[in-house]
Amino acid sequence: MTDKPFDPVAAWADMVQKWEQEINSWSTKLTDNEQFGAVVGNVSRIQLVVQHMVAEKMESMLATLAMPTKAQVEELAERMAGIEDSIDRLRLAIEARALTPGNAPVDAPPPPPEPKRTRKPAAKG
């Protein structure tokens, strides 16, 4: 008689496999009929209606408290990003104009006067 030693890992794998087969069988029986689809559709519709009602109530509550909604904050953030982009473009344009020849920077002091030449060149002779 050959007795195999008990393998707990194999026993666990066998149990999990049987459990998965039972769950798959049960879920197939549950989802095969049209009533399940109708129930899921109704639950989805109810969820959307409730979500819409909560959003409306939240918006009215925020308006009562004089607080902005999420959409208003997002719109403000987009407008601020546009303003920052415009400022950056203006800054770059001003810097580019200041670097072109003939355009001295506005804040730069005038160049110092060159020294007068008082020495005469040596006479050739």
How are the SSEs placed, and which strands pair?
Layout: H1 8-31, H2 34-64, H3 70-99
Helical run tally: 3
Radius of gyration: 41 Å
Mean pLDDT: 87
> How big a fraction of the residues is strand?
under 5%
- What's the number of structural domains? 2
Element-level helix/strand string: HHH
Gap from first CA to last CA: 133 Å
Tell the overall outline: elongated
Question: Which regions are unreliable across 5 or more consecutive residues at pLDDT < 50?
Answer: none
Please explain how this structure is put together:
Helices cover 68% and strands 0% of the residues. It has helices at 8-31, 34-64, 70-99.
What distinguishing features does this structure have?
mainly alpha, about 0% strand, 3 helices
Summarize the structure.
68% of the residues lie in helices and 0% in strands.
